[in-house]
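User: Predict the structure for this protein chain, please.
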Amino acid sequence: MELAIKIEKLKKSFEDIIAVNGISFEVGKGEMFGLVGPDGAGKTTTIRLLCGLLAPSDGNAEIFGLNIVKEKNKVQKTIGYLSQKFSLYGDLTIDENIEFFADLHGVKDYKTRRNELLEFTRLTPFRDRLADNLSGGMKQKLALACTLIHKPKIIFLDEPTTGVDPVSRRDFWKILSNLLKDGVTIFMSTPYLDEAERCNRVALLNEGEIMSFDTPQNIKASVNKIIIEMICLPIREAYKILKEKSDFEVQMFGDRMDIALNNFEKEYPAVEKLIKDANIQIIDHRVIPISLENVFIYLINKSKQNSK
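Assistant: Here is the predicted structure, written as structure tokens:
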């Protein structure tokens, strides 16, 4: 596998705060890679380090064999970076924004490439519209078009779909899928575990450290748990009972909760008894496939218990 990114014991500290704590992993060329974690996990810092926008406190990283510190200028010519707050110019049209970023990257004959990107992102009918007058989803697609104008070999996307409506999110993912077909390597951060399921491989990041690194399927398989989805009335009381009176891993999602068991036949009766003894009604229960969200919360809780 040809490597797009190689990271070795990369670390970044801000005074007494360790944002990235000695992480190591590799990303292959043409992969869609997901860096997954909550706010403050170190996702943005990691991306900014790889883009040469921050200097590491320790460790090394390479982009297509180029050192991110010693060969920063060369690195930045090969990458595209879509930050959380990508700076579009509201008083410029879609066409003018892309032209500006083409000039920024020294792209001389940009018009053919711009037309391709507008078709690719389905923005052609709106090319004369000011950026300030675009929807959130259209702004993200324009930002991506600006990021791609110089044909980068790898693009870094920092939570690209945060705050974007579901339809625009789906469109964005179609665009990313087409980029993969063209051989572009995609390195994205996301707080959405359902999005991470689409990646070839993911790293689960928490407090600057990698808890797990593999394909989504292998990560889920590594936690040998059975997940019971249960609906109760009242759900909050059922959740509270299980948290206080059992050692089962319980997660609540709206009107239902997920309970992680080792053995259904042996452990489910105990769950059922605790809830019924509290005069709580079980409306429904079923076994469901384990999700990355289940795994992530399980690993965080396990880490907390081990640190006690």
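The chain has two domains: 3-220, 224-289.
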